[in-house]
Amino acid sequence: MVRTQIQLTEEQAARLRRLAAHRGVSMAEIVREAVERYMQQAGAADEGELDARALAVIGRFASGQRNVSVEHDLHLDEAFSS
């Protein structure tokens, strides 16, 4: 596990302490559970999943440009400056 610090409001800290005491677990456990739930709801993907999704779209779209792999910086510059 990685140790980290967070800042909570007084009210958040008090509520977290009460919940942890009520459940008989540490405040850290409550925070870990909350972070995990948030990540699942937000659709946060691990790096392997992101890589797989990126690889899955290769070749699925056509830009009409023939030199994108070589001149990608030029094409991005043109796209963002328009």
UniProtKB/TrEMBL annotation:
Pfam families: RHH_1. This is Ribbon-helix-helix protein CopG domain-containing protein. SUPFAM superfamilies: Ribbon-helix-helix (SSF47598). Residues 2-38 form the Ribbon-helix-helix protein CopG domain. GO terms for biological process: regulation of DNA-templated transcription. InterPro entries: Arc_rbn_hlx_hlx, CopG, Ribbon_hlx_hlx.
